[in-house]
Specification:
heterodimer; A: mainly alpha; 8 helices; B: mainly alpha; 0% strand
């Protein structure tokens, strides 16, 4: 199954539906003027929010670079390994694959953008170590589930967006986001086990 | 609940305290390295701009024309008893599909309702409850020869549902 196709199709459908449904409603209810000014106002504000985001993105990625180049991320991912060993029982405890997986999951937890490159590296290394059999697929799927749920202690992007939108308490949502992310992670891992049992 | 919502504001100063000092002590050229990363951040923000415009335009269409009001009255039988605002329905649909689009939808909700309003806080939590499932599954499995990604995708979508549900329950708990 080509997931990318589904992704593009879904976005096309949603966007066309929203624009068409809005315009059609405007025609039918005589609110064309209201819609026009709402859209013009909206796109102007889109740029405003983008400018606000730029400041925070810039600051955060600067700090992130410092964390990477000082070796802070590597050091912390060594501490994350014992937990990762439980999640990836088939991987060699001192292998490259487990170390990249740890780095990727940790980057996610800290809201760093290095999560994706490290995760991709880990995928290749898992396949190299375990092959394409059931143990390999299980380990790859576990990594994908962890990163797709994106459990995060510091949701830097949302905090930036909230700050750019003029929030008085931009970081208020960090705790609830972490708790919800944990639920998504556990839900995904449990669902994977259940699906595997069902297919047997 | 106070622990969950109280910890957030301290994270930022904690990071700004720990990271630069650690980097300085490890002999990293702090200022120069920061500037390099900051440049990347600016590029990232510039790449987000088209998504913001596309989504703000589409959401403004359904909001300004009144279509969103019709949608919410059509779905009222479902949303009312649960107490889910209609504004977050597009966000729940788009969140697993496109990260930048979801961020833009959240941005539009924060603009229309205010970031600290109940709807704004719910949108923020749902945005952070999970990552972009379709993107992660696609990109990650594109790196390996295994095409056996169906079970992982299904599991991730179940996980998304758990995340949204947990986020919603926490939001209700915050509102008291």
């Amino acid at each position: 199954m080509d997931v990318h196709w589904a992704y593009a199709f879904c976005m096309d459908l949603v966007w066309v539906f929203m624009v068409a449904a809005g315009s059609l409603t405007a025609f039918l209810t005589g609110r064309a003027q209201a819609m026009t000014s709402s859209v013009l106002d909206g796109v102007a504000q889109a740029i405003g929010v983008g400018i606000g985001l730029a400041g925070m993105f810039s600051l955060w990625m600067g700090v992130e670079r410092l964390a990477e180049e000082s070796g802070l991320v590597d050091m912390l991912s060594r501490y994350a390994r014992p937990v990762l060993k439980i999640l990836f029982p088939h991987l060699r405890p001192s292998g490259n694959a487990l170390s990249s997986a740890a780095g990727s999951v940790l980057s996610n937890v800290l809201g760093l953008s290095s999560a994706t490159p490290l995760g991709l590296k880990a995928m290749s290394e898992i396949e190299e170590e375990l092959g394409q059999g059931s143990r390999g697929v299980d380990s790859m799927s576990t990594l994908v589930i962890l990163n797709a749920a994106g459990f995060c202690l510091f949701p830097s992007t949302i905090i930036a967006l909230r700050a750019a939108s003029g929030s008085r308490v931009p970081a208020l949502i960090a705790g609830p986001c972490a708790a919800a992310g944990l639920a998504a992670t556990l839900g995904g891992l449990i669902a994977y086990r259940a699906l595997k049992k069902l297919e047997r | 609940m106070e622990v969950l919502t109280g910890i957030g504001p301290y994270l930022f100063p904690a990071v700004l305290l720990a990271v630069p000092i650690y980097a300085y002590r490890r002999g990293v050229p702090v200022y120069e390295t920061f500037l390099k990363g900051a440049g990347e951040g600016l590029r990232l923000a510039a790449e987000t701009l088209p998504y913001l415009v596309a989504v703000f335009a589409a959401v403004s269409c359904v909001r300004g024309s009144g279509a969103l009001d019709y949608l919410s009255s059509a779905l009222a039988w479902l949303l009312k008893p649960l107490g889910i605002p209609a504004d977050v329905v597009p966000l729940i649909v788009i969140r697993p599909v496109s990260g930048s689009a979801a961020l833009a939808v959240t941005g539009e909700i924060l603009r229309a309702h205010g970031p600290d309003s109940p709807v704004g806080i719910l949108a923020s939590i749902l945005q952070g409850a999970t990552d972009t499932t379709f993107f992660v599954v696609t990109i990650y499995f594109s790196r390996v020869k295994t095409r056996n990604s169906r079970r992982a995708l299904l599991a991730c979508l179940v996980g998304d549902a758990f995340g949204f549900l947990a986020g919603y329950i926490l939001w209700r708990a915050m509102a008291g």
